[in-house]
């Protein structure tokens, strides 16, 4: 019974959402909106579960003195500080203020945002490394890829017009025609894969909400 009830609920809700997308009856629309509101509530509980799991993971890592356990101390301290300021800052008498800004806003703007930007900036080196490996001309396809990439890069910088005339026009054509066609093909494939997975979940073939695939 513990396994059948979640499967039945998943089938009913999933099938209803699919049907509601094609039916504009006010009763169906209202019920679908109610389900969306319930989804927000479930998402909130999932967020709490994620925070608890995060805290448990790093707490065990600190207790067992695993690799980089000191970073776990920083992570838990940051989590607790931001959670405290976000939840209880308005309850403090004078309010936690750094300079002329609330402490939560200050930490988010001047601590979290730069760290996030630093993390994403590291992707540039990973992309450059991947591009170096991809641009090794071993066959005709690799040669076409390298030529197209060089033209696009030249079309994106001012000096490219002096190195290769009309590189901007050629670059725009590449981005708006073959590149866009490939992107649409990828999106269609991803959409078909998502639809296939959704059908498998609705029918109970895949059960990720029960800790893994069904038996």
Task: Give an account of the 3D structure.
There is one protein chain. With 215 residues, the protein is mostly helical. It folds into 2 domains: 1-91, no CATH class; 135-204, no CATH class. 76% of the residues lie in helices and 2% in strands. The protein contains 8 helices and 2 strands. The chain has a two-stranded antiparallel sheet. A hairpin with a 2-residue loop joins strand 1 (97-98) and strand 2. Helix 2 (26-63) packs across helix 3 (69-88) and helix 5 (140-155) packs across helix 7 (167-176). The longest helix is centred in the first third of the chain and has 38 residues, at 26-63. It is extended, with a radius of gyration of 26 Å. The two termini are 15 Å apart.
With strands numbered from the N-terminus, the spatial order across the biggest sheet is: 1-2
Tell me, briefly, the overall form: extended
Helix content: over 70%
Number of helices: 8
Low-confidence stretches: none
SSE string: HHHEEHHHHH
What is the radius of gyration? 26 Å
Number of domains: 2
The major sheet is characterized as: 2 strands, antiparallel
Distance between the termini: 15 Å
Structural class: mainly alpha
Mean pLDDT across residues: 83
Q: How many strand units? A: 2
Strand-residue proportion: under 5%
